Amino acid sequence: METIARLARDGKAEVPVYAIGADRRVSTRPFDVAGSPLFIAEGIFAAEIVEECRRRGLVAGAYALRRPRGATFVRRLARDLSEQRKAPRLLIQRGITLLRTEPAVLRRQTGLGAEAARARQVLRRVAGLLAGHPHAHP
Q: Count of domains in the chain?
């Protein structure tokens, strides 16, 4: 939360670097929004901080991506196999588990204040925010 507040206030912060294979944060790196009027915080746990971001006036929109479950399964599996994150058998088992739990994850995220939306809807809304911002660059 403090990192997001720092990015909104100062335009730069040290952000965590995660090693998915190790299931933990391994370091930090500098991140600079380079004068952009908006930045996007994403990830499976992003919805956990939506309410606090709203309370602090730091959120322009909060979305949980609603995608076809089969397509998500294939994309995730292809990414994980290409990055050799874990043994293929484990990746397939994990993918099937995530496929089954995806509706519950989406319900949880919307319950935390994110709006379920397709990627195109989110992109249109972000473009609208940028178009309405006096310092936004096309």
A: 1
